[in-house]
Amino acid sequence: MLLQGKNAIIYGGTGPIGRAVALGFAREGATVHLTGRRLTALEAVAAEIRDEGGSVRTAVVDALDAEQITAHADRVAASAGSIDISFNAIGLGDIHGTPLAEMSLEVFERPVVNAARTMFLTTQAAARQMIKQGSGVLLFFGGDDGHDPIRDYYIGGFQVAMGLVDTLRRQLAAELGPHGIRAVTLQTGGIVEAIPAEDASRDAIVDMIVGQTMLKRAATFDDVGNVAAFACSDKAASITAASINITAGAVAD
């Protein structure tokens, strides 16, 4: 197994991407420390992991609260002996479909502020433990590694927030690399399965996502979990300050 004996903290573990990565990690032998704001929802995902024979712990943690994040990371490090992986999949805010020229400052800045706060706090808490160990992986999701802006669909501050995450990943990789810590992003062109069936715009969004790919299909939840597990394993030990492209050819490197 790729992650046997590893401890992975996942923030936003009840969301579709958090769940997909949690299942991928657990299948490869990691003990998953699943966090979120709602215990009932956390336990539902944990039950799926246990049903597959995986190891999981749950904790209610607000991934925008510095004290809660630090206290939880300290508990994991003390009880499990290490924090080998930290992955933040919390939602950053709604995508309103409003042009920037017509958007209020409050709506624009919400995902930017949320991204800056949660990504800084969660990676910092993990990095402090990883520095002591001399190893670890900070995993990110989304972003386009500085490629083209999104066309034909207004996503407000969300794309700006993703650019912030990309820059943070690069800086963390530079500062933490000498301590044996890697920082990697899974670069996605959109996960069709994550779009709610009741979303009135779903068909148009699916067509846009799939239409931009070379494979004529989008990455699936299983794809996300499998690539995440590889990226955080020792098999990927030389990958850092990088995005792993799972856009199915929507972005050509």
TrEMBL record:
Family: Belongs to the short-chain dehydrogenases/reductases (SDR) family.
Gene3D superfamilies attached to this UniProt entry: NAD(P)-binding Rossmann-like Domain
Molecular function per GO: oxidoreductase activity
Domain of life of the native organism: Bacteria
Pfam families per record: adh_short_C2
Keywords annotated in UniProt: Oxidoreductase
Record flagged with keyword Oxidoreductase: yes
Claim: Oxidoreductase is one of the keywords in the record: yes
Protein's name in the database: SDR family oxidoreductase
